[in-house]
Write a sequence for this structure.
């Protein structure tokens, strides 16, 4: 009985560890939702897309397109070129 309880405890702790969120992704999402529409927010979109690419490519593409749209909106040409280059390279 003790072995069963010990195994249940072990697997419940392991499950909690595996489900834990990435603090970097959480802080980037917070920066995007609370930030003004400026270059810092475009950088947050870019960083979030890069982090999400590792685990969720579909969401990374959506976030990257949002960053690209914001860079176009605020006419930030340097980031616009980076975004376009990044998405061309990683969409192949």
């Amino acid at each position: 009985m003790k072995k069963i309880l010990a195994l249940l405890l072990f697997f419940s702790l392991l499950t909690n560890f595996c489900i834990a969120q990435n603090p970097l992704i959480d802080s980037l999402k917070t920066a995007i939702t609370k930030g003004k529409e400026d270059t810092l927010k475009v950088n947050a979109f870019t960083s979030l897309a890069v982090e999400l690419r590792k685990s969720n490519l579909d969401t990374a593409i959506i976030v990257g397109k949002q960053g690209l749209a914001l860079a176009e909106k605020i006419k930030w040409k340097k980031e616009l070129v980076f975004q376009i280059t990044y998405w061309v390279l990683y969409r192949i």
Observations:
- The radius of gyration is 19 Å.
- Helices lie at 2-19, 23-34, 39-53, 57-73, 77-91.
